[in-house]
């Protein structure tokens, strides 16, 4: 016999509602981004170009590196003997 006090589980309705809401929110965001995307792309491209100019300035500056001291085996032997 079925238990009359047992509650039915309605989690599937919640899952469906959340997934439909997420799909609708994604569609609205896509349409909004598509509508205003052209002006945003221009601004982003300008910022990227400006940043790349500054990056090339930093990369073209050469910093003098210390050269390794070259020694012969005889000089090393004298240093070790002290």
Please give the structural blueprint.
Layout: H1 11-60, H2 73-81
Overall description:
This protein is mainly alpha-helical and 82 residues long. The protein has one domain. It has 2 helices and no strands. The longest helix has 50 residues, at 11-60. This is YtxH domain-containing protein. Keywords: Membrane, Transmembrane, Transmembrane helix. The chain crosses the membrane at residues 12-33.
Low-confidence stretches: none
Helical fraction: over 70%
Order of helices and strands: HH
Q: What class, by secondary structure content? A: mainly alpha
Number of helical segments with 4 or more residues? 2
Q: Count structural domains.
A: 1
Give average pLDDT, whole number. Answer: 78
Assign an overall shape: elongated
Care to count the β-strands? 0
**How many strands, which pairing sense, and closed or not: the largest β-sheet?**
none
What share of the residues does DSSP label as strand, in percent?
under 5%
The N- to C-terminal Cα distance equals 101 Å
Rg over CA atoms? 35 Å
